[in-house]
C-alpha cells in the first residue's frame, strides 16, 4: 500500500511570501489531518477533514492559513503571508476512520527567513 | 501540566543496551500510539495500543489503562534506532501528542 505523499520536502521562503503544501493520503482514507510541528514540540493539529468537509479547524490561524480538500482526496495547505514563527515541519496524516491507526507523511520542512 | 508527559526527554545509550521510554497521560483515551520521528521530520507509526502489550521485532509496547501509563522498550538497541519517539493518546478522533524523547544510540 502506498503511503501518504507530501510535497515539497523542504521549502525556504522569505517572510510575507506565500507557500503551499500538498498532501495525497492513502487511497480510501476518509480522514485527513494537517499538523504543525515546531522544533522541540509535539505536533499540533491545524485542521481535520472528514472526506471533503472540515471537522475541526479551531487551531488554524485563519487570517493567514487556509486548507482545502477537494473531492475528498488530495489536500493543500496554504500560508499567505508567511511569518518567521511559521517555520516548522508540516505533517499530513490520514486514517480510514477516526478510531483507526494513523499513517503520517514524510512532512514538509518550512523555513521562513 | 501537559496532558501527555514523556520521560526522559533525552536519552543516550550504547549499542546493545535495553531502552525504556515512558509515557503518562491524564485524559481518558481510546488508544495510545507510539510514533518514531527521524531527523528529516517524517513520522512512522510504531504501535497503536488500547490494552496489554504488543511486540514488533525488537520493539515492545505496554500499556496500563488503570495507571494511565505506557512504556516503549527497545531490546538490543542499534544506532539506527536513533530518533525521536513520540507518545500520542487518542480521544475519539483527536490525537494529543507528548513532546517526544530524543534517543541517540552510539556504536
Write the layout of secondary structure elements.
The complex is a heterodimer of chains A (113) and B (107).
Chain A: E1 5-7, E2 10-13, E3 19-24, E4 31-37, E5 44-50, E6 53-56, E7 65-68, E8 75-79, E9 88-95, E10 103-104, E11 108-112
Parallel strand pairs in A: 2-11
Antiparallel strand pairs in A: 1-3, 3-8, 4-5, 4-9, 5-6, 7-8, 9-10, 9-11
Chain B: E1 4-7, E2 10-14, E3 19-25, E4 31-37, E5 43-49, E6 52-56, E7 59-64, E8 69-74, E9 83-91, E10 94-97, E11 101-106
Written description of the protein model:
Chain A has no helices and eleven strands. By secondary structure, chain A is mainly β. The radius of gyration of chain A is 13 Å and the shape is globular. Chain B is mainly beta. Chain B is 0% helix and 62% strand. The N and C termini of chain B lie far apart (36 Å).
Order of helices and strands of chain B: EEEEEEEEEEE
Task: Note the quaternary state here.
Answer: heterodimer
Contiguous low-pLDDT stretches of chain B (5 residues minimum) are none
Record field, number of beta strands of chain A: 11
Helix content of chain A: under 10%
Secondary structure class of chain B reads mainly beta
Residue windows where pLDDT falls under 50 for at least 5 positions of chain A: none
Query: In DSSP terms, counting alpha (H) and pi (I) runs of 4 or more, how many helices of chain A?
Result: 0
Mean pLDDT of chain B: 91
Principal-axis shape of chain B equals: globular
What would the average pLDDT of chain A be, to the nearest integer? Answer: 91
Helix content class of chain B: under 10%
Strand-residue proportion of chain B = over 45%
Main beta sheet of chain A, described?
Answer: 7 strands, mixed
Work out the radius of gyration of chain B: 13 Å
Strand content of chain A: over 45%
For the largest interface, the chains and their residue counts are: A-B, 26 and 23 residues
Q: How many strands in all of chain B? A: 11
